[in-house]
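$ fold --in a.seq
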Amino acid sequence: MPFRDILLALLVIFIWGGNIVAIKIGVTELPPPIILTIRFALTGLIFLPFMKWPGWDKFKRLLEIAIYMGVLHQGLLFIGLRILDASTIAILLQSQIMFATLLGWLVLKESIGWRTATGLGMGFLGLLLTLGGPDLSQHPYGFVLIMCSTLALAASYIRMRQLKDVHPATFIALMNGLAAPFVLIGSLFLAPAGWALLGDANWVTLAGVLIYQVVFVSLSHILWQSLLSRNQVATVTSFVLLMPVVAILLSAVILGETLHASLIWGGVLTLGGVGIITVRKIQKKMPIEADPVL
């Protein structure tokens, strides 16, 4: 892998890790459904001129993915970040790789050997350890929200494996554009008074958050696809293991969050388990779920 591509891969991982912090900042300014609706609408409109019509069959599959990845995963993730620390969620998000592995076994009949099973056991044990920390012990429903969020994301990855050759800008435009109306309707039920807060919000902060998500996160997805197309997939996807570490470090530096022993040891076990699963997927040349906060 060329040195330039290594730097670009690290840049993508840095952007993805920083996105968790950006969401945390955003949901402190506006209710989660409000800012998520704005983000989806802006992203869909900006990338609409660059999309290519995928055909009705792929369009229907993209609509399903938008519901799983956009409405359910992102919606629950944004609500969870209103409740929990970003560093905690950086660890909990890794469960999507474990859920995707289990769904691949159940739905796609993929095999799970003893090494992968060991990784799954370590990962889920690590998640249980994180429950002993003050963040999750005070907000156990936050844990449930993020588990549901990652399960929805894992389901979207199962669908994405059956979706081939979609133009990256098309995927971004449709995934965001199709999710926006559903989230808008949800905001009218869950946070009807939230839209009245737009005038009092700190739009300097919100503009930074939205620019980061709409532009940088979206472009990082396109860059990632470019890296995958010209390098060995196993080499590129191995960088994903660094993302939670980056997110935790940025959470500590930018948000001033503190790490507790249960989160540290739970995180070590969870990341160790995910690492084993990822290595096994690389060895089997299987797809790795590598875009948890698009």
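$ fold --in b.seq
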Amino acid sequence: MRKLLIFISVFCFITAWGQGKDSTFENANAAYNAGQFENAVILYKKILDNGQHSAELYFNLANTYYRLNQVGESIFYFEKAKQLNPNDQDILVNSAFAQNMAIDAVEVLPKSQITQWKEKTIGLLSQEGWAYFAVFLIWLLVLFWGIYLWNKVPIVKRTFFLLTIVSALLLMGSLSIAFIKSSNAEETTYGILFNQKIEVWAEPNSRAEVLFLLHEGTKVQMLDQLQEWQKIRIANGSEGWIKNGKVRSLKGFK
């Protein structure tokens, strides 16, 4: 929610770091096209270390790791790209290819139509996208209200009064969605497993039953932690505890 408030409070500020023109980004792309994948990774990571991030950057980095057959890294950065641009078809298609490299084929639990509709609506834009959309609606709301007050023609006043109401309703809806998306992001933490192979236990002790095995590249939801033990849930709803798990959180910008 704090991120949303920052966007709203500085809605007149437009950020554009010009990644496409950045020399480091161009050099990284050139290294990738030349097949110098290790060098490309170094250059892409340098951009991340400078605090710059975008769906395109994560996408290119994921593709580079895919070429290096590093399944965990590839899946991790495709997931990061999807967070910023969830409906990009290139990201979705290449992410599916990367998932095919993973050993664990975890079936996703079926969802009701209402849940699917809700997730599709929330997923139309990223959290930043909904914030920018709210900013756009604020400008429209101010514009329509100003025209309504200024204009003296009855039919024009009625038209822009209606447009003002519609804009206000859309603004409230977009803010609500952004709030829900922000709350979900704060309450739910996902990560990518980087252990080559790890046992999942019924309880956080080595005397418990081993439920199943997981491998590098599996996406897990992190539920709890007890010393060196982590409680996780996978996409099919199965839960358990892993010991000394190398799980890299998808939160943050690296």
